[in-house]
């Protein structure tokens, strides 16, 4: 996918059995990194770990004990942990926030915000504090505006965006912390939003693919981005700008 080299490095990717997470795990592996993956489906975790010749541990990131176990596994298998990609997320509850069930709201924040913080804490204490590293949080283009029916997801991702900035300020210079914010990407979780639709008005005239986001993540964790921290890389095909319709002025 790229000439960026991560040979000798080790990475942990969450939500890594499909969509953006799987594309990221594959990209890091192709660049030479050893990769530890996690997701809730134990069969899929084992399959992807075998495919990548890496390691895997299934689990629910709402469980506060899982981050420590994941970091311990990566350190045991690889002897180091240089890269952390916090990709796992839930988009429930869908619908108006006035109808949001408290348990689902709490779960959205536990997985989308709490788990990235706990994973970063464990990675910091286990390896990165002494040896450095790079963390990338997968946010969303929708974190900065109101989205119909996805309020819990957007609000939790806005919190993750702010968490990224806070951690970047606290963990430098040894650890760089950045985020990527995909636009509408053709993943299973977002199928309800892109299936049957066309990318009307997008300057690049297509929805995103998981590999588009993976390339951005790979750049952020590579040495090419050594002077980048606290940044949010927008990977949205031009969603925020849309296409400008240029009309000639009379007499022009």
TrEMBL record:
Keyword Oxidoreductase set for record: yes
Keyword tags: Oxidoreductase
Coiled-coil stretches noted in the UniProt entry, renumbered to this chain: none
One Pfam family recorded for the sequence: adh_short_C2
SUPFAM superfamilies membership: NAD(P)-binding Rossmann-fold domains
Record carries keyword Oxidoreductase: yes
Molecular function terms from GO: oxidoreductase activity
InterPro entries: NAD(P)-bd_dom_sf, SDR_fam
Family the UniProt entry places it in: Belongs to the short-chain dehydrogenases/reductases (SDR) family.
Protein name as catalogued: SDR family oxidoreductase
UniProt organism field: Streptomyces roseirectus
């Amino acid at each position: 996918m790229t000439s960026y080299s991560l040979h000798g490095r080790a990475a942990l990717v969450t939500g890594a059995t499909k969509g953006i997470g799987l594309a990221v795990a594959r990209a890091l592996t192709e660049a030479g990194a050893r990769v530890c993956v996690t997701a809730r489906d134990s069969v899929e975790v084992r399959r992807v770990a075998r495919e990548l010749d890496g390691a895997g541990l299934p689990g629910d990131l709402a469980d506060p004990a899982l981050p420590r176990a994941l970091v311990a596994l990566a350190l045991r298998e690889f002897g180091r942990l240089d890269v952390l990609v916090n990709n796992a997320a839930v988009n429930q509850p869908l619908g108006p926030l006035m109808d949001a069930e408290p348990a689902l709201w709490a779960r959205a924040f536990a997985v989308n915000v709490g788990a990235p913080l706990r994973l970063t804490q464990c990675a910091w204490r286990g390896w990165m504090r002494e040896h450095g590293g790079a963390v990338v949080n997968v946010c969303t283009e929708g974190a900065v505006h109101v989205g119909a029916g996805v309020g819990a997801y957007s609000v939790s991702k806005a919190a993750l965006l702010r968490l990224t900035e806070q951690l970047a300020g606290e963990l430098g210079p040894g650890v760089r912390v950045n985020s990527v914010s995909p636009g509408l990407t053709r993943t299973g979780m977002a199928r309800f939003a892109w299936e049957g639709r066309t990318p009307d008005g997008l300057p690049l005239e297509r929805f995103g693919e998981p590999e588009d986001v993976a390339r951005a993540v790979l750049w952020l964790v590579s040495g090419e981005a050594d002077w980048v921290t606290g940044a949010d890389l927008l990977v949205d095909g031009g969603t925020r700008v849309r296409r400008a319709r240029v009309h000639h002025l009379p007499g022009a």
